[in-house]
Design brief:
Elements (H helix, E strand, L loop, with lengths): L18 H20 L1 H41 L4 H18 L9 H9 L3 H8 L1 H16 L7 H18 L5 H17 L2 H12 L5 H22 L18 H32 L3 H4 L1 H18 L9 H8 L7 H17 L6 H15 L8 H17 L2 H11 L7 H17 L4 H17 L30
Helix pairs in contact: 2-6, 2-7, 2-8, 2-10, 3-6, 3-13, 4-5, 4-8, 4-20, 5-20, 6-7, 7-8, 8-9, 8-10, 9-10, 9-18, 11-15, 11-16, 11-17, 11-19, 13-15, 14-16, 15-16, 16-17, 17-18, 17-19, 18-19
Length: 487
C-alpha cells in the first residue's frame, strides 16, 4: 500500500519546525521588531528613560560640587574659630534630625539600604515612601546640613538613593513598567556618576543591590550607567576620584601585606558594622532611653561627640575624609592608629544620629589610614601599595562585597589592571568580616526600612465599636430621695 502524498510531512525549516510554521514565526518576529522600533509609545518611554538617566548624572555632579563647597565653608569656619564646632555641630545635627522626622522620614543614613529595600518591595505605595519625589530634594539638602555640622559622612550613598528616586520619577512620568529594574538602574547609575566608575556601577548592581542579575535588567542598567556617566563627564571631564596610583604589586613579595591588611581590614570593617547596627541601641539604653524618647537631643549629643573628636584630631575627622585619603595615597602625609579609631567613631556617631549621609568616602579614608598605620611593619611592600590594600580590605570588611570593593578602588585610583593582591585582600577581608557579622551591613539596615515602608503602606486598623451591653451589665440608676413639699 502506497502512502498518500498529501499526508507526507511538510519539509522542515532551519528551526526544525515545518517550513510553513517557521515562516509564520519569522513573520511574527518581524512584526514585533517593527512595532518596537516604530511605535511612538515605545519611543516616548525610551526618551523619558534616557532623560532620567542623564538627569541622574547631572544631579550627581552638582550634588558633589555643592557638598564640597559646604565642606569648605565648615573647614574655613572651624579653622578660624576652633571651638565653633562645639556649638555648630550639635545645632546642625539637631536641625537635620528634626527635618528628617518632620518631612523626610525615609532619608536617614546612607541611602543604599533604602534603594535595596525598594528593589525588594512589590507595592507602589511602599516604594514611593522610600523613593518618592520628596526624597530627591530632602536627601541632598539634609546631607548638606550634616556636612555643615562636620559630620563624618559621604555623599555617594545619598547619590544612590537620589538616583533611584529620579529614575522612579521618570518611570512614572513615562508610564513604564518593571519598576524593580528601574530602581536597580538608578542605583547603579548613582554609583557610576558619584565616583566616575562605570564598571563599579555594574558590579554594585549585581553584587550589592540585587545579589544576582536577571538578563532583562542588563540592558536597562547598562544604558542608565552609560548616559549618567556621559552626563557627568560632560560637566567634569574624565577624571579619577583619587588621581593616579602607579604602584606595582608582586604577589610573592606582598603576600604578608595581603594577609595582614585583609585580616585587620576585615576585623575593623566588621567592628564598624557591629557598632553601627547594635551600638546605637546600647548607647540609647545607657542614656536612659534618650535616643528613643528624645531623638533630636540624641542627634545633638552625637554632634557634640563628633565636634570633640574633631578637636582632638585638629579637624582631621570632619567631613568625608577625601582630602586626607588622597594625601595618604600619594604619600604626602601619614597618620597613626589614633586617627583610625577617631575617624571610625566619628562615622559611627554620624550614623547613630539619624541624619542623612553615606559611608563610602569615610570608609575609603579609614582604609587608607589603616594602610598608612600598617606600612612601617610591612617594609617589603611600597607604602602606596599597603594603602591601596588597606582601602580595599576595610571597604570589603564594611560592605562584605569584595568584587565591588576592589573594582571601586581600582577605578578611583586609575589603575588599568586588576592586580591579584587587591582581589585577595578583598576576599580575605570579606571572609573575616562574615565571621563576626553574618549578615551584610546594608542588608541589615535595609530590613529596617522594609518594615517602615510596610507600616506606612498598611491600611489603618479599624477602631472596634463598643459591644452593646446586656441588661444585666447596665448599672441601676441611683434612687433619688422624695422631695418634701412645704405646707
Amino acid at each position: 500500500m502506497t502512502e498518500d502524498p498529501a499526508r507526507k510531512a511538510a519539509p522542515a525549516g532551519p528551526s526544525g519546525l515545518p517550513r510553513r510554521y517557521a515562516m509564520h514565526d519569522n513573520a511574527k518576529r518581524f512584526r514585533r521588531i517593527h512595532a518596537l522600533m516604530l511605535s511612538p509609545k515605545m519611543w516616548r518611554r525610551r526618551l523619558v528613560f534616557w532623560t532620567g538617566a542623564i538627569c541622574v548624572g547631572v544631579v550627581s555632579v552638582y550634588f558633589a560640587l555643592f557638598a564640597d563647597k559646604v565642606q569648605d565653608i565648615f573647614a574655613t569656619l572651624s579653622t578660624r574659630l576652633p571651638l565653633l564646632p562645639l556649638a555648630m555641630s550639635p545645632l546642625m545635627f539637631f536641625l537635620s534630625a528634626w527635618l528628617v522626622a518632620r518631612y523626610c522620614p525615609s532619608t536617614p543614613g546612607s541611602g543604599i539600604p533604602q534603594a535595596i529595600a525598594a528593589h525588594a518591595l512589590q507595592g507602589e505605595k511602599e516604594r514611593k515612601y522610600l523613593l518618592g519625589p520628596r526624597v530627591i530634594a530632602g536627601k541632598m539638602l539634609l546631607t548638606f546640613l550634616a556636612l555643615l555640622g562636620g559630620g563624618s559622612i559621604g555623599r555617594e550613598g545619598p547619590t544612590v538613593q537620589v538616583g533611584a528616586a529620579l529614575m522612579m520619577l521618570s518611570a512614572r512620568f513615562g508610564r513604564m513598567t518593571g519598576e524593580r529594574d528601574i530602581v536597580l538602574a538608578g542605583a547603579a547609575a548613582g554609583v557610576a556618576a558619584a565616583f566616575n566608575t562605570p564598571l563599579a556601577g555594574i558590579i554594585f548592581a549585581i553584587e550589592e543591590m540585587a545579589r544576582g542579575f536577571h538578563h532583562r535588567s542588563s540592558g536597562v542598567v547598562l544604558m542608565a550607567i552609560v548616559l549618567s556617566g556621559a552626563a557627568s563627564m560632560s560637566v567634569l571631564g574624565n577624571y579619577n576620584y583619587f588621581g593616579y596610583a602607579d604602584t606595582v604589586f608582586d604577589l610573592a613579595r606582598d603576600s604578608t601585606a595581603i594577609v595582614v591588611t585583609g585580616v585587620v581590614g576585615g576585623f575593623l570593617g566588621a567592628l564598624f558594622s557591629l557598632f553601627l547596627t547594635k551600638g546605637g541601641k546600647y548607647l540609647r539604653d545607657k542614656l536612659h532611653g534618650m535616643g528613643s524618647r528624645h531623638p533630636l537631643w540624641f542627634a545633638a549629643f552625637c554632634g557634640l561627640i563628633i565636634a570633640l573628636l574633631g578637636l582632638a584630631t585638629h579637624g582631621a575627622t570632619y567631613g568625608t575624609g577625601y582630602t586626607l585619603a588622597n594625601d595618604l595615597l600619594h604619600e604626602r602625609t601619614s597618620v597613626s592608629w589614633g586617627y583610625v579609631g577617631a575617624k571610625l567613631l566619628a562615622t559611627v556617631f554620624s550614623g547613630f544620629s539619624g541624619v542623612p549621609g553615606g559611608i563610602f568616602s569615610p570608609s575609603l579614608s579609614v582604609g587608607a589610614a589603616v594602610g598608612s598605620a600598617l606600612s612601617p611593619w610591612l617594609g617589603h611592600t611600597p607604602m602606596q601599595g599597603v594603602i591601596l590594600l588597606g582601602m580595599c580590605a576595610y571597604f570589603a570588611g564594611v560592605t562584605q562585597a569584595p568584587i565591588t570593593s576592589f573594582v571601586i578602588v581600582l577605578e578611583v585610583t586609575g589603575k588599568g589592571v586588576m592586580p591579584a593582591p587587591l582581589i585577595a585582600a578583598a576576599v580575605l577581608a570579606a571572609a573575616v568580616s562574615r565571621l563576626l557579622m553574618p549578615m551584610p551591613l546594608y542588608h541589615v539596615l535595609a530590613h529596617r526600612f522594609l518594615i517602615d515602608a510596610r507600616k506606612f503602606a498598611a491600611p489603618p486598623e479599624p477602631v472596634p465599636e463598643p459591644e452593646p451591653k446586656t441588661a444585666a451589665e447596665i448599672p441601676p440608676e441611683p434612687e433619688t430621695a422624695p422631695q418634701e413639699t412645704s405646707a
